[in-house]
Amino acid sequence: MKSKIKDIYLPLKAEIIEIVDMTSDIKLFRVKPIRQFSYKPGEFIMLSLWGKGEIPISITSTYGFHRYIELCIRRVGYITSALHLIEPPAKIGIRGPFGNTFPIERAKGKDILFFAGGLGIVPLRPLIHKVMNEKSKFKRIALICGSRNPHDILFKDDIDSWQKKGLQLILGVRKGLQLLIHTIEKKDKSLQGKVGLVTGYLNIPKISFKNAYAFICGPPVMINETVKSLSTMGMNEDNIFTSLEAHMKCGVGKCGHCYADGKYICTDGPIFSYAEIKKHNLYGH
């Protein structure tokens, strides 16, 4: 059960146990808070570094499966650059978890499509873990995973594990991970996958678009093109979900930085259906 947050503004002390280099500008941080709390796929935390500031970060670990909280962080700004310079053990602050979660319960008994572009695999990873661990509750499950080049593919061990489970199920059982495609934007000699954009591989065989659910994370351009294409191909806009990013300072709907047309990305989201995104014009977040 999730621990009650006594003060939503007071960070919980935590220690960085391990840091793993994922790519040239992305690192995986394994974090141990002084008090354990549960979390669900799609939720995020506000991470603070003393003297530097605070930023929202998606949780990429799976509660009950991974020993520590895992945060995959790209070096893009002042605070993330400072995080990339620290070494374990190092102290940080955590507030949360905040936000809503992917409505995976609604997808039981249905086909599922996962679309991950670049760093988009980070928030989807715990959801895919959950689905693959309960795959008998779903029909066909497909993953299209894209990156700029083979060296930028994240969580290769997890992807290989999902693929192996899928290959075993394809041989003898109708349910499981039905398809895995690595889409690469640039050709490479070591490439093992298809070349092109994620949006070029939407027509996955044996998936019923009319009744399927889609969960999409990635760059805004990729998300916009994917949701529009899925809608055109007959998928219900209430069944298409994505995680939106926004500039936020509090994470609890107080600062107003992520407010748009009656919605707060931090408290009403960050997971929204395509129908909600269109209704509230959330494309800018």
How would you describe what is shown here?
The structure is a single chain. A hairpin with a 4-residue loop joins strand 1 (12-21) and strand 2. The chain is built from 5 helices and 15 strands. By secondary structure, it is α/β, with parallel strands linked by helices. The longest helix is centred in the middle third of the chain and has 17 residues, at 156-172.
Briefly say what this structure is:
The protein is an alpha/beta fold and 285 residues long. It has helices at 78-85, 121-133, 156-172, 220-232, 274-279; strands spanning 12-21, 26-33, 44-49, 53-58, 69-74, 90-98, 112-117, 140-147, 176-184, 194-195, 213-217, 240-243, 259-260, 263-264, 271-273.
Question: What order do the helices and strands come in, and which of them pair?
Answer:
Elements: E1 12-21, E2 26-33, E3 44-49, E4 53-58, E5 69-74, H1 78-85, E6 90-98, E7 112-117, H2 121-133, E8 140-147, H3 156-172, E9 176-184, E10 194-195, E11 213-217, H4 220-232, E12 240-243, E13 259-260, E14 263-264, E15 271-273, H5 274-279
Parallel strand pairs: 7-8, 7-11, 8-9, 9-10, 11-12
Antiparallel strand pairs: 1-2, 1-6, 2-5, 3-4, 3-6, 12-15, 13-14
